[in-house]
């Protein structure tokens, strides 16, 4: 079968048939169904379609929906998929589809799995954290997909299973309420985890070793709810940088694709109206529901997620350059369960953010000092409580005569410059409970300003802004932590602004905000002389 092109799809070069690693002799003889696709090349899960095959489904990956003239060129066996689905026929242990509503994630997964099941014997476990009834599963989606692909004559649909004449089977079961059943399952070729944001770490530890057949795959489909959730930590966080840059990450074992409605060529008008209404009236909800961004702050959050989003690449959007102090904030972590954090800034622009768990305090200090040298830092500000007390002495041994200003930050201290008026009103001592509350609230004020500048068009001095570079290694983690630091209510001295402690955050299931604190430290360096650097300037003065 030669090369051919349909509509605006990608060039299809080779005829391939859906299989696992079994010999070709026993593949599709019972159904005669084959699939024509070249998106995964020789590493795909398909074999060439034999000469003379009649029932051949052709996969097309499109950036745009075909117009009327192009549609006339397709038949019922031409399968149209979003271009970002290209490559998901590759052999990967983990295939992850992450993003918001209307993206065609689940529909695309169902399409590929039904075709795979029709072309050769495949056992598919369709699961989620909890499934109280078959109505809560993807049973209807699979059944509808069978009908849409005109394969009803090959499949039998019951209330609990969907089976193909070649022995393929779709099984539907929750994890948490069927632990023993899940553990005892054998020969599962594909495990499809739908609404996987709810799957806990305990459930992943049960499920993953259960899917152990040769060449077996785990498909993960979800809209991230919280960056601290087990699914996000397993399948998105390790690839954060690549996903921010390109929307896709790939390793030998993983293929992770970020999909939103913007990648769906067939996004329906009915959903578009709903999306636009939410975008206009409830923008924060829109970012989660439609754009797949993890849920942000509660009503007690210090920094609004909308402000944080506006700060991403604010220096690019507004046209100012990084200039001035290079300060590095360092959270060495008080306990072994907390991550260590480093955040560096050049003037108003945050240029570095990374976190890690490995190593002891001495190794962490060495990493912080080496990072300070690499970025040419003028200041290193660290958490002086607990294990952090050793930082200054150890850095002094490392740096010798190098001129790096090293300062400890003690959050329980009284506010700095206590008699200075906050925003021209009350004295700092009459506004903030302690130094930590003061520093984080001043950071909050910085984040509000790029929102006013970028979204509202107000002119604000660049030195008063903050910009988060979009290429930060741990950008999403930093954004999440910033939006989860909350104001403490109902405490002693309630008239003063006070923050939740790290211990209180842990009690409500939040990890210690190491990166957020490191960012706070980076903007808490001692004041520099007025003539240390020239003021930052916009490329276009008075852009407002």
> What is the typical, i.e. mean, pLDDT?
83
Shape: elongated
Q: Number of domains in the coordinates?
A: 2
For the secondary structure, the number of strands is 20
Q: What this model shows, in words?
A:
- By secondary structure, the chain is α/β, with parallel strands linked by helices.
- The chain folds into 2 domains: about 80-265, P-loop containing nucleotide triphosphate hydrolases (Rossmann fold), CATH 3.40.50; about 305-520, Nucleotidyltransferase, domain 5 (2-Layer Sandwich).
- Helices cover about 30% and strands about 20% of the residues.
- The chain has 17 helices and 20 strands.
- It has a 9-stranded mixed sheet with strand order 8-9-10-7-11-12-6-14-13.
- A hairpin with a 3-residue loop joins strand 8 and strand 9.
- Helix 12 crosses helix 13.
- The longest helix has 20 residues, at about 435-455.
- It is elongated, with a radius of gyration of 27 Å.
- The chain starts with 16 loop residues before the first strand and ends in a 22-residue tail after the last helix.
- The model is unreliable at about 1-30 and about 530-544 (pLDDT under 50).
Main traits of this protein?
Nucleotidyltransferase, domain 5; alpha/beta; single chain; 17 helices; 29% helix; disordered C terminus; 2 domains; Rossmann fold; 6-stranded mixed β-sheet; disordered N terminus; 9-stranded mixed β-sheet; 544 residues
